[in-house]
Amino acid sequence: MIDIESGHPAIDRYLAQSYERVRGMSSRFAAAICGHLIRHQSALGIGGALVEIGTFEGRFFIAMALGLAPGETAIGIDRFDWPDAGIEGRFLANCAAHGVSSDRYLCWKADSREITPGVMREKLGAQAVRFVHIDSHHSRECLTNDLELAGAVLHRDGIICLDDMLHPGYPMVVAAVFDYFARHPEMRLLCVIDREDIVAAPKFLICRNTSISLYEKDLLGSFARFHFTMNADMETYFALVLTPHPRLAEV
Ligand SMILES: C[S@@+](CC[C@H](N)C(=O)[O-])C[C@H]1O[C@@H](n2cnc3c(N)ncnc32)[C@H](O)[C@@H]1O
Q1: What spacing in Å lies between the alpha carbon of 51 and ligand 1's midpoint?
Q2: How do residues 68-115 score in pLDDT, each as one tens digit?
Q3: Residue 57 C-alpha to ligand 1 middle, in angstroms?
Q4: Which of 60, 69, 72, 182 shows a CA-CA span of 20 to 30 A to 234?
Q5: Ligand 1 atom nearest residue 80's Cα
Q6: pLDDT tens digit sequence for 42-61
Q7: Edge-to-edge order in the sheet of strand 232-233
Q8: Which ligand 1 atom sits closest to the C-alpha of 54?
Q9: What residue owns the CA closest to ligand 1's atom 11?
């Protein structure tokens, strides 16, 4: 097991004892880094909702929701129709079993493509979204929709985390991200979280240009031993790369 912690006691207990037992697809490595960012946001006074689009049985959602600060809520969105009709019940049961009480989150059975920013704002009340994990249908069309939806309700210093970037099974979806950057030059890649495995694939963390300084140095300092020193070449800037086993090719 990779030796990594978020620094948030409840999240770390869950990551150590239960994470792998909740069926799901996100890596523990990525969940620890995202949990760390959620804790870091709280320490900086960045408050708001935590949202996941594509909860499945709740593996990653629970890690996020355990990082809620007092007064904040989480929203878990899923169609809850795959692989069978029991999925919503298993999601709710997993949240209860792992310490996320029902008054801290909203379980929203919906197709994200049918959610408008206006309806999303109604569900959020006064909260902006400070951290959102997008892990729904792995198509350019759905990711484009979800990125625009997330961007519309994102806290000024919020973070969008994208699952299965650069996954060999979904080579086209990353195109939606670069199209999004072209439409939204105020957004940029903060960090690539590398894969643990083909079923626990890389994630991108993106945020506004103006928020990079809040996160980059902290990530580097906290996860220095996972830093791929060449970083990610985005042509006009470099983004951080954190990988479970950093090394360079021997030349
Ligand atoms: C890969 S699974 C999510 C895994 C989970 N986030 C984790 O880390 O364990 C993808 C989920 O997205 C849901 N999904 C797919 N398309 C969707 C859509 N358009 N709206 C809402 N949920 C969707 C599926 O029902 C499925 O539960």
Answers
A1: 13
A2: 999 999 999 999 999 999 999 999 999 999 999 999 999 999 999 999
A3: 9
A4: 60
A5: 25
A6: 999 999 999 999 999 999 99
A7: 105-109, 74-78, 49-53, 129-134, 154-163, 203-208, 187-193, 238-242, 232-233
A8: 12
A9: 54
